[in-house]
Amino acid sequence: MSDASNNFYIDRTLYYGRPADLSDRLEKEIRTYDLLDRLEIPYQRLDHAPLPTIDACREVDSLLNIDICKNLFLCNAKKTEFFLLLLPGKKKFRTSFLSKQIGSSRLSFADSEFMIKFLDITPGSVSVLGLMNDRDNKVQLLIDKDVLFSEFFGCHPCINTSSLKMKTADLINQILPAINHSFIPVDLPGMN
Description:
By secondary structure, the chain is α+β, with helices and mostly antiparallel strands. Helices cover 26% and strands 27% of the residues.
């Protein structure tokens, strides 16, 4: 079904688990489903055209009954430290607040080459689940307190043509330990 106001396709069917037919899915997406299945993590899935902006995610948010997280891939000025920040989609990112909390000045968005190298993800598809590809722990996960306090969170399965809804506790207690990643909680300014 196409939404004429946003000009992108959304299959409004809410699926539980992986797609039945994986023939047209990328390997990195299949690896995501394999990880979730191995850990027995339940999740709901919506399939859609690539969502170009967080605003385009609003209808997906509504259908999944969540606020899709922003996943921002950041680095320091020297490009020696890399961070993945999860924050609610409706929150604005303010560098100064984050820099003070993590002790890393001059944060900026990291180049896509590092995103591909460390997370096997391309721009527009950034996801916390991409950390499964960061076997050398080059990327530090930062999670905003509002995400931590939410029962559910939403993200892409390493590609922006599907969106997943799962329990935040499953991310913290099962997924992150299984992929050998920890996180630093951060407290960014309120919703807008």
